[in-house]
Amino acid sequence: MEAEVKDQLVSIEKPELIAPPDWEPVIMGILCNWCSYAGSDLTGTSRIQYPPNIRIIRVPCSSRVDPWFLIKSLQTTADGVLVSGCHPGDCHYISGNYYARRRFLVTKKLLNFVGFHENRIQFSWVSAAEGPKFAKVVIKVTDDIKKLGPLHLYKKENFEKK
Amino acid sequence: MARVGVFVCFCGANIAEYLDVPQVVEEVKRIREVKYAVDYKYMCSDPGQGLIRDAIVQHKLTSIVVAACSPRMHEKTFRKALSDAGMNPYLLEVANIREHSSWVHQKNKKAATDKAMDLCRMAVAKSIANEQLHEISVPVTKRALVIGGGIAGIQAALDIADARIPVVLVEKSPSIGGKMAQLDETFPTLDCSQCILTPKMVDVASHPYIELIPYAEVIELQGFVGNYKAKIKKKASYVNFKTCTGCGACWQKCPVKVANEYNLGLDKRKAIYTPFPQAVPNKPVIDAEHCTMLLKGKCGICAKVCQPGAIDYQMQDEVIEREIGAVVVATGYDMWDPTPYEEYGVGRFKDIITSLEFERMVSANGPTNGVPLRPSDGKVPKNVVFIKCIGSRDEAKGIEYCSKICCMYTTKHTILLHHKVHDSHAYVFYMDIRAAGKGYEEFVKKAQTDTAATYLRGRVSKIYKKGDKLMVRGEDAQIGQVVEVEADLVVLATAVSAPKDNPDLARLLGISYDKYGYLSEAHPKLRPVETAKAGIFLAGCTQAPKDIPETVSQASACAAKVCGLFAGDTMKKDPMVSTINIEYCSGCLNCINVCPYTAIVTDEVPIGHGSKELRTVAYINEGVCQGCGSCVAICRSMAINLAGFTDPQIINEIVSI
Ligand SMILES: Cc1cc2nc3c(=O)[nH]c(=O)nc-3n(C[C@H](O)[C@H](O)[C@H](O)COP(=O)(O)OP(=O)(O)OC[C@H]3O[C@@H](n4cnc5c(N)ncnc54)[C@H](O)[C@@H]3O)c2cc1C
Ligand code: SF4
Ligand code: SF4
Questions:
Q1: What is the rounded radius of gyration, in angstroms, for the C-alpha atoms of chain A?
Q2: DSSP string covering B490-556
């Protein structure tokens, strides 16, 4: 049933449009303070290199991430979003990351339903000790989104720099 | 209009080498709200902070962005710089251009510079939406509640009370003392358990700062750190403790005999009883399940013989309330029931006993006056087989974990056996000997030499009866052979298990427990005595199996935490907590379900201005809220906001690049 629905979905992706040669995607990374943000700091202190496309927003817990943030990101400035939290069972706030995960899955389904490719919205668990893993996640997400090309439809064109 | 100041740090070469700092400064100057931007070698240094302080005053800045290392590193430092210049410290935002840019894009200066600019734009946009925040101060009730009066609860209560902080100690059974009151001598020094414990029990009863409430249980806890209210149910004892002198005439005359819990059913007590001679308080209670007067209205002997007239058959359970600021949970442990070991004949063979039963037998005040006796025929056993890890490290029948104390107490038991029955011989079936602890390995070595006990490494597969002996068949892995030992008595070192009512207690207190039922600490290494709920601490075996020295250390640590909490008249708290705008709250109460700290409660407000009719809304207790933001994201009415991470702040970040 689900597969059937998927096949009938009209995608808003425009793979036929060719991105300018110097195009680089923008990825909004929303990270929880205690695990993933700390992990991304460790990637830095370990000098592990990764693509420069991600822009990181710090939130206390992945459960703070409102679906609205993902929609707004894709609508205005980002070609993809990465939300990252603590590993299951490790949440600084006991159970926040479970709520985050459930909410995230629903949001992803919704965005997929309205036509976004599912790889534009990704979720990961990165702990404060996983500097190398954070780099790997960013490399993968950047790769995935590069393949999808620029997000044309809702992207605020010619965003004016104040 | 906002006036933002941006301060970009070189961090020596750490930032400046991999991205173009002056260019970042030039770029941020183009942002409308940025009224001042500058770079410096080390923003965190004193002159660096001086730049910020001066600029705040000179340029009348309304928020500050420092583009430097991770906020996890120096956010506090820069907040202080703002305070020093008379600005609210929460008007600061940090753009992390070191860990998130210069260090991770070292081969692409242009990209690193562009990214740093974006990170600055985001921080500037966020800072514009920042609000002035103030540390929350919460009043504290300086009284502690200790639940459980084993050695853990006793130690915690005494330490807290010695700091002149009132303590309410609630014990479920008629006396404090816990399992330690049932032990004979204690490893690794073999001092007598009662001799070191009973003075402490007496101290508890006579301490001016301790209110001892025995035969009672906590049934409700409301409020939050510093401001809890506990409901305590005092079970009816049918004896007025105020008039009772503890003479004992009642239990001497009582005709009803009941299995004695203190001696694990190895002998009898009366229906009116004190659990053991050194009990504190030393007042009897009536066991309502067995007293014929209470059951059928027949007897009444105790009332007749009680000189002061302390017996009161009409007594009812009573619920009392205490206001407290902190809780220490010290509910100890249960002994694991070895019934699943069917192949050993547990339950069928009388001469298989548990280690705690053995402990009672060798105790001078025990049911056999300090000599181990076979329960079947009352004879003194010569060959005694001790089997370790019963239930422990046994996923199939028992539990996965190591109970930690059994290796040591079994070693102790071989010594006690040797002392009490000189011509006896001990056999120990074991998997490993785990003797980590000060003086422990030495204790084990010495015991092995002194007692000449036979140690057999391997699991026992079967126990069967041969005449009046028990045949213990097991494997001796060291010689790779099956061995059989003829035993007069078999002692099972049964596992330590979590108290069975811990899950209920945990729910009532709003704390969590693990899959075994042990109460969970906030962090396994760095916060081992705190729970995730502020103001609730854990001591002793209720958190995990441990021996007395460790239990006492943890109890004293709890006391230090409680004293720390009560050090001031108010407690300071981070202002980054959530609040609900009741105008928008629809009363769906979804937020209550997602709050991990039960910080949200319901409230009633008039439906309209001046209206008498009420509607339900949610209310967040800022003293309890830890600021995770779960409720903010779940609220469909967008009624909730989390200070420091408000929707406008985060949306500003998203749209600013
Ligand atoms: C056979 C044996 C031998 C041992 N020998 C030694 C030894 O030689 N040396 C050594 O260091 N350790 C020894 N130990 C370990 C020792 O018993 C424990 O380390 C110690 O008793 C732990 O103390 P506690 O206060 O945490 O728990 P407990 O002694 O179990 O005390 C818990 C108390 O809380 C009360 N309680 C429970 N639930 C509630 C509730 N809901 N409300 C109110 N009160 C409640 C109980 O009634 C009890 O009084 C031995 C253990 C065993 C089984
Ligand atoms: S989720 Fe929002 S609307 Fe529902 S009760 Fe909580 S604050 Fe009120
Ligand atoms: S922010 Fe978290 S801790 Fe605070 S009330 Fe909301 S859900 Fe509870």
A1: 16
A2: EEEEEPEE--TTHHHHHHHHT--B-TTSPBPPSBTTTBSSB-SSTTEEE-GGGTS---HHHHHHHHH
Count Cα neighbours of A90 within 13 Å in the Cβ-side half-sphere.
Answer: 15
Give the integer Cα–Cα distance in Å for A41 and A54: 14
- Predicted confidence at residue B526, as pLDDT, reads 83
Instruction: Spell out the CATH class of A2-7+26-148.
Output: alpha beta
Does ligand 3 come within 6 angstroms of the Cβ of B571?
A: no
Quick one: tokens of B656? Answer: 């600013």
Q: Amino acid identity, residue A143?
A: D
Task: Kindly list the structural domains of chain B, giving each domain's residue range(s) and its CATH number in brackets, ordered by start.
Answer: 4-128 (3.40.50), 144-235+317-333+498-565 (3.50.50.60), 249-305 (no CATH), 334-497 (3.50.50.60), 578-655 (3.30.70.20)
Q: Is pLDDT above 90 for B419? A: yes
Tell whether ligand 3 has an atom less than 6 A from the beta carbon of residue B628: yes
Q: Do B112 and A52 touch (CB under 8 A)?
A: yes
Q: Do B630 and A94 touch (CB under 8 A)?
A: no
* CB contact residues (below 8 A), chain B span 118-147, against chain A: 118-119, 122
Dihedrals φ, ψ of A77, to 5°?
-125, -15
**Domain locations in chain A as residue ranges:** 2-7+26-148
Q: Which residues contact B113 (CB under 8 A, 6 or more apart)?
A: B19, B20, B23, B24
Tokens 């910080």 belong to residue: B599
Angle at B327 between CA B322 and CA B328, to 5 degrees: 130
State the sign of the Cα–Cα–Cα–Cα dihedral A134, A140, A142, A144. negative
**Nearest ligand by distance to the CA of B149:** 1
Pull the structure tokens for residue A78: 């980002």
Among A24, A72, A161, beta carbon nearest to B655: A72
A6 falls in which pLDDT band (50, 70, 90)? low
- Chain pair A-B, CB pairs under 8 angstroms: 131
Smallest CA-to-CA distance from B195 within B207, B206, B185 is with B185
Q: Are B4 and B64 in contact (CB under 8 A)?
A: yes
Burial letters B393-411, b for 16+ CB under 10 A, else e? bbeeebbebbbbbbbbbbb
Is B50's pLDDT higher than 60? yes
Determine whether the interchain pair B654/A41 forms a contact, defined as Cβ–Cβ distance below 8 Å. no
A contacts of B73 (beta carbons < 8 Å): 41
Q: What is the mean pLDDT of residues A55-79?
A: 93
Q: Spell out the SS3 assignment of B352-365.
A: EEEHHHHHHHHCCC
pTM: 0.75
Query: CB A48 to CB B104 under 8 A?
Result: yes
Q: How far apart are CA B363 and CA B379, in angstroms?
A: 17
- Rounded CA gap, B143 and B210, in Å? 10
Q: Interface pTM (ipTM) of the complex?
A: 0.90
**Alpha carbons B143 and B160: distance in angstroms, whole number:** 9
The answer to whether the Cβ–Cβ distance between A162 and B653 falls below 8 Å is no
Tell me how crowded residue B526 is: count the other CB atoms within 10 A of its CB.
8
Whether chain B has a CB inside 8 Å of the CB on A66: the answer is yes
Nearest CA in chain B to A60: B628
Cα–Cα distance for residue pair A123/A83, rounded to 1 Å = 5
**Residue among B119, B633, B657 whose CB faces A77 most closely:** B657
Per-residue pLDDT tens over the stretch B569-627 = 888 888 999 999 999 999 999 999 999 888 999 999 998 888 899 999 999 998 889 89
Residue B446 neighbours by CB under 8 Å, 6+ apart: none
Contact A94, A62 (CB under 8 A): no
Residues with CB under 6 A from ligand 2: B 580, 585-591, 617-618, 634-635, 637, 639-640
Q: For residue range B82-127, list pLDDT tens digits in order.
A: 999 999 999 999 999 999 999 999 999 999 999 999 999 999 999 9
